[in-house]
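Re: that backbone. Tokens:
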């Protein structure tokens, strides 16, 4: 099934809370609905489109002329299971954190560290969401959706997804051509806990025994302390990626700034905490008009109320310039700028 709307407000469909409209907005409840829409409205095949989930990683600069596609697929079910693991298929429209709560509630491990990440299930593979030492890629088995060029259903196995840090084939070769309708996860009935990152272990210990639900509680507590709730103050989580550099090139940086946080990022590479760079370029907690930098996590830009997308974008450019001047490092945006 599908429903086509016109002049549709996107205010509730972007966590920055930017007040823009979509000329046309298509909601579909399954792959057939999307395919049927294009077959019965062939004129839309020439209209540019934009795929939007919860809009937790988007910054709209102005009204959207493109057709907005919203994958409102909500089913969830177990495909198969054995003693070790369970394969579960979840619709792209399901709220990510509700999915995590469901898995933790059933005692299935693998996504508990990814608690409270804003967004929908369908965006998880696109962005290869990650937090507290875990990325979603390794627990994904399949991604189902529609190839918009052929209007055929298509399945990607995990290997085909080419997952890497905040990246996948859906942001590269298949960008704009593939709409996710559901994701198949393989979760663990005998979970291996991941407690290595930052304060997670300390927080879990404070709560009692190591368990899926205590990891979920710990991650939620840490996120609530550091990250602003988009319901209260508009934001899209980390605005920039943590830059990855050749290890050699970080030696002078480390000599000059001994406390700079660096993390190993595979063969001879090192990841630098962009939040530290932004803070040390003097931007933490700063405000320019209605846009600002969060006062507890410098990687997060916020809408203090009524900011336009352009105001937030301009602030991000000032930050990039200052970080480049001070550290000779170019920050890359994690958020997708539309317009
Ligand atoms: N730091 C600062 N100043 C700040 C904030 C942090 O110097 O204002 C330092 C911290 O002291 C720490 C380091 O930066 O040493 C890393 O900070 P944090 O653990 O908060 O994580 P992050 O690297 O800033 C990444 C993800 C987050 C994810 C956290 C936890 C990216 C772009 N961001 O942030 O993801 O929740 O790790 O795993 O990789 C998101 O993608 O939207 C997001 C919020």
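Recovered sequence:
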């Amino acid at each position: 099934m599908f429903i086509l709307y016109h002049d549709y407000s996107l205010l509730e469909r972007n966590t920055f809370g930017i007040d823009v409209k979509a000329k046309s907005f298509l909601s579909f409840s399954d792959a057939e609905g999307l395919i049927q829409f294009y077959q019965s409205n062939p004129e839309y095949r020439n209209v540019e489109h934009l795929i939007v989930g919860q809009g937790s990683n988007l910054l709209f600069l102005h009204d959207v002329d493109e057709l907005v596609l919203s994958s409102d697929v909500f089913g969830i079910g177990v495909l198969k299971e054995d003693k070790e693991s369970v394969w579960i298929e979840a619709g792209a429209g399901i709220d990510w954190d509700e999915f995590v709560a469901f898995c933790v509630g059933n005692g299935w491990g693998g996504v508990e560290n990814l608690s409270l990440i804003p967004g929908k299930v369908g965006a998880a593979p696109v962005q290869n969401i990650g937090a507290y030492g875990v990325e979603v890629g390794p627990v994904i088995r399949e991604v189902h959706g529609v190839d918009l060029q052929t209007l055929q259903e298509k399945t990607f196995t995990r290997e085909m997804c080419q997952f890497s840090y905040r990246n996948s084939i859906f942001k590269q070769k298949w960008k704009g051509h593939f709409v996710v309708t559901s994701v198949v996860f393989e979760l663990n009935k005998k979970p291996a806990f991941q407690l290595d990152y930052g304060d997670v272990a300390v927080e879990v210990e404070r709560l009692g025994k190591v368990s899926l639900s205590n990891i979920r509680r710990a991650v939620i507590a840490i996120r609530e302390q550091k990250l602003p709730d988009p319901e209260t103050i508009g934001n899209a989580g980390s605005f920039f990626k943590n830059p990855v550099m050749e290890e050699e090139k970080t030696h002078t940086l480390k000599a000059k700034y001994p406390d700079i946080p660096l993390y190993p990022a595979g063969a001879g590479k090192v990841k630098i905490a962009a939040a530290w760079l932004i803070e040390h370029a003097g931007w933490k907690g700063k405000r320019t008009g209605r846009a600002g930098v969060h006062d507890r996590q410098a990687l997060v830009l916020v809408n203090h109320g009524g900011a336009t997308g352009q105001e937030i974008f301009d602030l991000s450019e000032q930050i990039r310039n200052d970080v480049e001047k001070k550290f000779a490092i170019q920050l890359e945006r994690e958020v997708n700028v539309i317009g």
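Residues 131-132, 197-198, 226, 237-238, 241-242, 261, 273, 275-276, 279, 284, 297-299, 334 surround EPU (CB under 6 Å). The chain has three domains: 2-71, 76-188, 234-338.
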